Amino acid sequence: MRIGIDGRGCHESLDGIGRYTRNLVSSLLEFDRENEYVIFILPGVDWSFVSQYSNARVFEFPYRHLSLATIHKLGPLVDQEGIDLFHSLFFVAPAKLRAKLVVTVHDLMALTYPGFFGERFVVGQLLASLYHKLYVPATIRRADAVVAVSDFTRQQLREHLGLPMEKISVIYNMIDPRFVTEGEVGKDAVVLTKYGLSPGYLLYVGNTKPYKNIEGLLRGYLRYQIKSEKPYVPLILAGKEDRFRRRAIRIAKDLKISEHLQFLDEVSDDNLPALMRGALALIQPSHVEGFGLPALEALACGTPVVASQATALSEVLGRSALLFPADDNSKLGECIHQLVCEPELRQQLREGGSQRVENFRKESIVKQMLQLYRKVAKSKS
Question: What are the residue ranges of helices labelled H in 243-292?
Fold first, then answer.
């Protein structure tokens, strides 16, 4: 079978979809020598690892994945390559394809979360919203199979798009093997020094969009300070600067906690495991998550996690994290205070986390994905 994969979710700075893309493609190529692969990529992005596999090659397509070119220009090129099955790793795909189509859906926040396109000019908000309303449901409905990264996302697909459950397969995200409890000798210290950090901070990893509940994180951190004595454990927010950060900075200033906060830009995937291992705890306070990969990666690094009970997070983390209601800032403050003050609790969470991550190893995820590919390839159109 000749499989095409849209790898354009990988760009210069990897976000969640980019890391999902890189992890899945590298693992498929590692374990599957039977099928052929053509990876459609953005020019200038390093995919050199593909060259070591004789059954795979890359095809450059110079348009971002969320573009009209995806809908109208990519399809003929996929057909030209003789692709039997095309897997889009995000929720838009060519309007016309001869190949069978598999689509991964991470979440539906672009369709369901109020203000998702906020902090743009009005015209930009309208155009972004219109693009998603026109092309996301259409792509998902015409797919031969849909991969949901959590049962929560599967339920969202049923409730908001009326998708039949039998069309949806839940296949979780996998953990990158770099996220382990112990790094190379001396390397973690070098990474922390680079960012001006000492071990024992609170860590948040991600963007500052409204659904991430950064305001709740900052208010919860203030509640922790109120319950605690100085010196306070600092809070580090790591992630590429986006259009919502200015609001986060303003809230921190209003709460008078700015001196205990630090924003880190452009933390590379190579440095992120060390950053997680150096943390006393990772906090994921989101209102909504389709999966919540940073929390799982923290568990793999042996770092305790405090997370909201929202949506997919409780599904993914189970009992291996300290959970709180997303809108309860006081409870978040209590959870932080508990972790800071109770080393026994931190050790208990580490042990639970090490067991939990075994459910998300790449061998199992690749096996499930290949089974789905074979099933779709044999199905009638």
Answer: 245-255, 272-277
